[in-house]
Design a protein that fits this description.
The protein has 5 helices and no strands. It has 99 residues and is mostly helical. It has one domain: Lysozyme. α2 packs across α3 and α3 crosses α5. Belongs to the transglycosylase Slt family. InterPro entries: Lysozyme-like_dom_sf, Transglycosylase_SLT_dom_1.
Length: 99
């Protein structure tokens, strides 16, 4: 994950270059964005990319090509992972039923 220096400072993260600290801070920040935007993943992603102020200003995903593309790409990956997880669960259920 990537945190901007000011965001890291706001979160109390002293070493953004430490991978574990950075990931933990990024997850904490994303959880806060999810809470701020009522668990709307698309808005939280947009806020992570463009800043929460931009999402509030535009009352949705800001019309920035970079942000629109970011949200689209991450959501596509998310849907793919969810689909794989469901397929894995179905395979496990089928395997267990056979035994």
């Amino acid at each position: 994950m990537q945190l901007m220096p000011n965001t890291g400072k706001h979160l109390g993260i002293s070493d953004l270059y430490d991978p574990i600290t950075n990931l933990e801070g990024g997850m904490r920040y994303f959880r806060a964005l999810m809470k701020q935007f009522s668990d709307n993943v698309r808005l939280a992603l947009a806020a992570y990319n463009a800043g929460p102020g931009a999402v509030i200003k535009y009352q949705g995903i800001p019309p920035y090509p970079q942000t629109e593309n970011y949200v689209t790409r991450v959501m596509a990956r998310y849907q793919k992972l969810v689909g794989q997880a469901k397929a894995d669960d179905a395979t496990t259920l089928a395997d267990n039923a056979i035994q």
